[in-house]
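Work Package 3 committed the consortium to producing structural models of liganded targets before the mid-term review. Because experimental data for this complex are still outstanding, the team generated a predictive model from sequence and the ligand definition alone, so that downstream docking and mutagenesis planning could proceed in parallel. The input record is reproduced below exactly as it was submitted to the modelling pipeline, together with the SMILES string for NAP.
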Amino acid sequence: MTRVSIIGTGAVGRALEAGLQGKGGYEVRSASHDEREVRDAAAWGDVIILAVPLAAVDDVLKTIGDGGRGKVVVDVTNDFGETPPTSRAEELQAKAPAARVVKAFNTVFAKHMASGKVKGEAVSLFVAGDDASAKKQVMDLGRSIGFLPVDAGPLKNSRFLESLGMLNIKLGFGPSKYGEDIGFRLVGA
Ligand SMILES: NC(=O)c1ccc[n+]([C@@H]2O[C@H](COP(=O)([O-])OP(=O)(O)OC[C@H]3O[C@@H](n4cnc5c(N)ncnc54)[C@H](OP(=O)(O)O)[C@@H]3O)[C@@H](O)[C@H]2O)c1
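The resulting structure, written out as tokens with the ligand in place, is given here.
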């Protein structure tokens, strides 16, 4: 049985501990600030999940030291500091200031754009823009096709949609080779 060490006992650490121990049936050991506990947990586990803030990762790695050698180390961190400086959509808006630019459809493969569905299931249409009525119009267009429109916020959030669009392409045609019959769907909204 794979042994899982979780470093960080916050929201993510506790949730993963509960899920892996409960539903997953794994043996889990958690540690947080106590360096000795961190070192011992890391040395014990086959998989080490770093469930700490990004800023703490270097410290934790130092504490783990050789205990991480050859191990699977899972990085769950999100980087709130390093927003891409701009997006293609914002550049377009700057070049066409009289237009009301909206970013949409870039996270979907073209073969699903006539139906808004992948294998019969509706996918999300992420729509970002600064002009509320322009955004609504595009969301309505998407809904009329069969998409589930998602208000993705201001145009500057195109920075993230453009990354998501590239992820879609990499998932389809990169090493995972999932092909084009895939799509993203936001649940819970
Ligand atoms: N929350 C989410 O929905 C979510 C989703 C996906 C990814 N993430 C990412 O997951 C990571 C953890 O998020 P979280 O929401 O669980 O944060 P959190 O609730 O603040 O928990 C962070 C944990 O890391 C511990 N920690 C901080 N500095 C440490 C250090 N130097 N050495 C050892 N432990 C340290 C904290 O201990 P103390 O509290 O005692 O300082 C706490 O137990 C972050 O990188 C976040 O971006 C979060």
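Reviewers should note the following from the model. The mean pLDDT is 93. These observations will guide the Year 2 experiments.
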